Amino acid sequence: MVAAHGRCLRPPCNEQYCSSTTTAGVLTSPCRIASNSSRIESTFIQMPSTDKSFIGKRILTMSHMKRILVTGGAGFLGSHLCERLVADKHDVICLDNFFTSQKHNVTHLLREPNFELIRHDVTHPLWLEVDQIYNLACPASPGHYQYNPIKTMKTSVMGAINVLGMAKRCKARVLQASTSEVYGDPLVHPQAESYHGNVNPIGPRSCYDEGKRAAETLFMDYHRSNKVDIRIIRIFNTYGPRMHPFDGRVVSNFIRQAIANQDITIFGDGSQTRSFCYRDDLVEGMIRLMNHPNGPHTPVNIGNPGEYTILQLAETIIAMLGSKSKLSFHPLPQDDPTRRQPDITIAKKQLGWEPQVPLEKGLAKTIEWFRTIDIEQYRPPTPNFA
Ligand SMILES: NC(=O)c1ccc[n+]([C@@H]2O[C@H](COP(=O)([O-])OP(=O)(O)OC[C@H]3O[C@@H](n4cnc5c(N)ncnc54)[C@H](O)[C@@H]3O)[C@@H](O)[C@H]2O)c1
After folding, report:
1. What are the pocket residues of ligand 1 if the criterion is a CB atom closer than 6 Å to any ligand atom?
2. SS3 helix, strand, coil % of the chain, rounded to 5?
3. DSSP single-letter state for residue 250
4. 208 is catalytic
């Protein structure tokens, strides 16, 4: 149903040059925006928080599959998310510039008819028709995001503006992958979403921390001003198979070094704490947040509240691998947080979510994967990985 000038007459689309029409105004395919509005909302099945068996089960019953864009979809978390969404029979578009990832993270998905891969940089506008957007594109480890801090800030801010603009136009739901780094070096412990953080705005980590904070601001403002249906997940340290061996994060660094019997790099005295969430738990939390029918539209912490010192993590990995590695102590980088532990009360109450995979079990799976890879096949994204 298209007027002669090419404007789609299917409410609520009403777009000139709607992608379902040719410039001559001929309808070539069903208009996705119009059909979105008539879709029956996915049914969210509330799992009791005590249910230990939710992982691997589908939380949605679909009346129709959705077209879903995952920016940063070739990365560690993005590729697992794409895998899960493809398995759930959605139509998945993975977008990435491969700055901190390898194309082979998703090449196994290319044979699936409901998967597409686009090389694109989120700092540039893009024009797609989608129902949902997961915005994960951003370098995530300090060495790599500090390599080109201006680009990191642009990726967070311009990337957010571009996906929010698309979500506004398509009436898509959009989820921002935010971070526990918005809490900076926290003065409140554990960190609840109501805590506004303790962030240095001018330090070497600020390009990431403040970039993610600015992205959260943009998400909230598009929601308040333009009624864009947003979700914000604050991800705490997440690990698992398919982490880039040179991503410079603590779990991948320690495992890579321990397998090679090299010295384990410890910054500071190793008494700083972190919480480690296994990737399956994280992906489940992200999908639950995206598909919860009525929000929450404010940030939600997703992470594992188990708190470990960096020394404990190093010793556990050395013991699990039977490694001959010794600990090598280096000065603590500026603004490195001393404590980190999520308060996940909101995720438990509103999403029925809590982590299921204990650290040793998750580490065992991660170590097993690291043993299988050919490290020569991995290009360090920047020189800053240890
Ligand atoms: N893994 C964690 O512990 C963790 C913690 C907090 C937040 N996060 C957030 O989750 C998201 C995914 O993290 P990850 O651990 O999978 O990291 P990752 O580096 O593996 O994935 C990020 C992906 O984004 C891509 N990318 C970077 N800049 C881009 C750009 N300008 N345009 C398009 N693609 C770009 C990279 O190539 C990569 O594939 C990131 O936004 C990160 O900030 C992750």
Report:
1. 71-72, 74-78, 96-101, 121-123, 136-140, 155, 177, 179, 235, 237-238, 244
2. 35, 20, 50
3. H
4. yes
Asked if the structure places residue 20 within a domain, the reply is: no
**Does any domain span residue 10?**
no
Name the residue range of residue 232's domain: 44-238+279-304+337-357
Q: Give me ligand 1 centre to Cα 72, in Å.
A: 6
Residue 37 falls inside a structural domain:
no
pLDDT in tens, 113-140: 999 999 999 999 999 999 999 999 999 9
Cα of 8 from ligand 1 centre, angstroms = 36
The CATH number that applies at residue 104 is 3.40.50.720
Mutate to test the pocket of ligand 1, among 118, 144, 235, 237 (most ligand atoms within 8 A of CB): 235
Q: Give the position, in ligand 1's atom list, of the atom nearest the Cα of 155.
A: 31
Nearest in space to 99 (alpha carbons), one of 145, 160, 164: 145
Q: Residue 13 has what pLDDT? A: 40
Looking at the domain assignment, is residue 318 inside a domain? Answer: no
Q: What order do you get walking across the sheet with 300-302 strand by strand?
A: 115-119, 91-96, 67-71, 132-135, 173-179, 230-235, 300-302
Q: Which of 134, 145, 183, 208 is catalytic?
A: 208
Q: Identify which of 69, 99, 163 to mutate to test ligand 1's pocket (most ligand atoms within 8 A of the CB).
A: 99
How many structural domains compose the chain?
Answer: 1
